[in-house]
Design brief:
449 residues; mainly alpha; 19 helices; 75% helix
Length: 449
Amino acid sequence: MLSISNITSPQARAILCIAIMLIAGFLVTRLTKKLRLPNVTGYLLAGMILGPYCLGVLSQSAIDSMSFLTDIAPALIAFGVGKYLKVSKLRDNFRRVLVITLCEALCAAVVVTFCMMGFFHYSWPFALLLGVIAAATAPTSTIMTIRQYKARGRFVNTLLQVIAIDNALAILAFSIAAVLVQAVSDGSGMRTLDILLPLLYNIILIAFGALGGLLLVRIITPARTIDHMLVLALAILLLIAGAGAWMNVSPLLACMVLGMVYVNLGGDKRLFKLVARFSPPILLMFFVLSGARLNLPSLATAGIAGIAYFLVRLAAKYGGAWLGATVSRAEPETRRYIGMALIPQAGVSIGLAALAQRILPEEAGMLLSTIILSSGLLYEIVGPACAKFALRRAGAFDRKPAEVPAEQQMTGALLEQFAEPGADSLADSEPFAVSERHRDEKKDREAVG
């Protein structure tokens, strides 16, 4: 078999490794697209095919040499989550959204944790990490379904806000759980210093993220060129991710705070679209590597736990969302169907699993990654269908424009925050051209000449 590790030149090995991952990820998505599956599914499958347990093109040493993506890709994802936490968009419906989110996230985390401890006899640190990862919801599948079918209305508004806060809570819970797990990972028990030191590192990193958001608002001005906007944002993101890796703590919460502070202080919204346009190759390689890390022989045992995780989380998410919607006196459509729209899980959860794999012992980390990735494939197959079913049954497809004009305007504003980079945004014909102000000045000079 052709393996990257057989190439003696380290430069050629690194370049070919990147090229092969990009090509394979793209080619497999041609198949998954015909099956109407998300791209993430194709990337994971590409990694499994290239990995050491199948074709062996990506050896374990090649996978290890690209491990820095485990810090960079989740940082990009967390920064994108931060943009959803704009206070002005959450204020009007905040109480209802918060109750629904707390109920569905806590229900998923608690039920999954105790299920993994009770039925599979996993240790509490291992089960706790699985539980907090279960709280996360993948926004991409649901949001793309909303955009594809032009869904509108109060149900869609509530759903988008719940997804935003849900992922923020998942990242926060993971950061706390990671501190606890690290404190007992050496087997000597939990000491005060073991808890306080990682907690202090997390606080420092979060403060760094908040300061980074303030700095971005100050240095990204209308006169700044678009390419320099991207350079500055990536520099601060990489500084946070690198500092987190150095201190051995998760950079997710700090990167989320970076995005949240920036958007709430009136930062240029184009920055999020710029980062989103830069991210696809990085995220593709990250998910391909995640698939390559999947221990296929262990699926015989861990796959059972993955299926159980899939079913338990599905039931807990639906039940928790129903409870939250009932307590907050939401509309009948929200009570019945919002849980179905929260089923998809990938992106943030896979990023959290990759970080969890670092703080667990090698065997336990591999097991957790296998459970999340195997269940993730099921979620990426079932999740979009569940979201479409929920939106249709809630009547979001059938509303006429005249019936809910205000709600449609609000949905459009929310979708703008969640929007994927597309052909109708951010100076599409010249995405890395000079800023609008510079273009206007150029036109003025030409007119005078």
